[in-house]
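Hi U.,

Before I forget, here's the chain from the pilot set. I'm dumping it here mostly so it's searchable later in email.
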Amino acid sequence: MSTDLRSGAPLQIFGGGPGGLAAAYYGVKAGYDLALYEGSGATGGNARTLKLGDCLFDTGAHRLHDKNPEVTDEIRNLLGSDLMTVNAPSRIHLAGRRLRFPLQPGDLLRNLPWQKVARIILERIGRNRDPSPSNFRDWAVDQYGKTLAELLLLNYSEKLWGEETGKLSIQIAGGRLRNLDLRAFLRGVLPGDDPRHLDGAFLYPRHGFGSIFSRVSEEIGSGRIHCENRITSLKHGEGRIRSFVVNGTTRVDARTIISTLPLNLTVEILDPLPPRTILETARSIRFRKLLLCVFCLKRPKFSDNASIYFPESEKPFTRLYECKNRSPFVAPDDQTAIVLELPCHETSPYWQMGEKELLDTVLAALNDVERVREDEVLNTAVYKLPFAYPILEVGIEQKVEELIRYLADFENFHLLGRNATFQYLHTHDLFASAKEMVGRIDL
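Structure:
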């Protein structure tokens, strides 16, 4: 077994997605010698920008919110004037109509039958609050009433995670319906827009979201990045990772490691294997897979929205996004690319379908929303993301804590990022946590 690939680098980073790249970026800024190992042929992970025909598109409906000024300044310094402020609101497609996202009470009043609106209001007034709901379904019904919860939150969540909402953790609850209190409903009866409508403003790079990480990769330097080098084994002993194996053949002496690999995969490749209880816990946590169906169209735009959400179960996709509404520079004036997301388990018929059958199925469902003529479709593609979303089931917090506590016993091994810590982290979170981690590790 050979031993090369910069065995002597004092900082070794596993994974070339956003988290790993952010760690390497701050490592280089700190003056550290480092090596980054990425299993695929390119960096960027699930935040890449790809090209189909003449159109650019992102592998996800990514955007940058200015929630951490220090991170925003860092990215702005990297991209300069290419980092633009964009105002492109999103919509919810429901019963043939498009409601604003985040959801606005006035939209419900204007677009739902009055009997259903009355039921929603009565459920809000008469609900008995549960101080400690045990799952997401109970939380949603408690917060918004059964009618509204089933109309939007519960159906959409079951499509997204592929599980009954009674089995999902309340961790998946976000702030998306935070404007829906009774006073907001009553204000929505009045003419005009709800004053708390969010305008959809965010930051976005001129040439696609992936250009953030392309620039980060440039700053790291190609000599420090080793693509097509998958970590296949972690040799450990006496409380340390002693070495690791790349592509099943090359052994590398381990120094200080920052890993962004999926948490369950990390446990599975330990050598020797961990105790049976740890293995069983690792095998019980799961990631949701995601299909991206891409259509390059011969039309200036499909809609005016950054994203359109589809909570109804009849549609196989959960979201459509159009990068040209984030930046006009990603497609010619007379073309646009739309991407439809289909969350799947490995056993899903959609995941098993051939590419042509899948695209035909998705396009047929899309035509029920808005007609796309065959002669408008210039190019198509399908991309599979095997580790798209951590599935946050009831009890997941205890399982993740158990695994992280076990791995923390290896003094030279540190976990970073969404897949490694099994939590939702946005770009600004990843940069901030990467900087903090690089700053505190002792090389």
